[in-house]
Amino acid sequence: MSELFSKIKIKDMEVRNRIVMPPMCMYSSDDDGHAKPWHLIHYATRAIGGAGLIIQEATAVEKRGRISARDLGLWDDSHVEGLARIVAEVKKHGAKMGVQLAHAGRKCGAPGEDLIAPSPIAFDETYGVPREMTREDIMQVIEAFKAGARRALMAGYDIVEIHAAHGYLINEFLSPLTNKRTDEYGGSLQNRARFLKEVVKAVREVWPEEKPLMVRVSAEEYAEGGNHPEDIAEMINLVKGEGVDIIDVSSGAVVPAKIDAYPGYQVKFAETIKEMTGLPVVAGGLITVPEMAEEILKNGRADMVFLGRELLRNPYWPLMAARRLGDDIKWPEQYERSKI
Length: 340
Ligand SMILES: Cc1cc2nc3c(=O)[nH]c(=O)nc-3n(C[C@H](O)[C@H](O)[C@H](O)COP(=O)(O)O)c2cc1C
Known about the structure:
Helices cover 33% and strands 16% of the residues. It contains 11 helices and 13 strands. Helix 1 (37-48) runs parallel beside helix 2 (80-92), helix 2 (80-92) crosses helix 3 (135-155) and helix 3 (135-155) packs parallel to helix 6. The model has no long low-confidence stretch (mean pLDDT 98). The site of flavin mononucleotide (FMN) has 20 residues, from strand 4 and helix 10.
């Protein structure tokens, strides 16, 4: 059996293989963040295709935390029913399902919302200048993450992922480029990590101890004066004691910066995070070839791999990858007659 198709257990979640579908916005909800048939079909198809763990797209914990006006939401109890249907369907097909709890901060793209951030600096000329968050705002957002996690539990997700990457609100606190605060939430690594730490702590008050919690980070900001993998690892070390089980390693989008993206360009960041924090990591970025995924796992560079756009192109990638690696995995019963 290949590493790619070996099981992994994180807390009470046993995943059938190491293939992760990372969160990818579908911009397809209704005006109020409710799921539509598109979401059910989209996620269930990847479960049928053999992915091990599916992390639902950025799902806003506050209306003002949406990346776009068509983001899914978990800011209201009315969101739970539609999402629970998706989770149940995905699980029926053998995959585990998580949700990425998100707040866009200064990168909120839903019109007419209150733009908030640690410091009043716009991302670029296409975004407005955000309002510097007060202590009350900080407490409100922490409560919103907690309420989102409570609803995620009601919907039946196996894991929650806290979105601390890509220049959204939590990442804005972590980065010295976007956080110029002079209170206890800005300055030192310890202070910049405080908001994430308080979010994780609050989420853990409602998210059961036996269930895994993942954090997604931008390990490299590709800009002078920005965070590098070592800084992010140090901040994870300050936060992990609150109940972090695994890190999903991405990069960029904190400030407008050019990225030299090539197959596996983020894997070295994942290795650094794994080594410095001792936590399991998910690595990815432009992975399309089964042997490459296998190499990353077999050399111990990461514990799981994510394939984003490749799974959009081909939801059945895992079924074909197993054949390529010589693994005889179970196909969906309905498709058995097409198994090569
Ligand atoms: C359409 C699309 C939407 C995305 N939305 C999110 C998102 O909601 N949250 C997130 O953390 N990353 C998001 N990403 C980034 C992906 O999760 C992934 O990290 C990225 O596509 C690189 O992996 P890949 O080269 O395998 O596609 C998105 C990417 C795409 C292509």
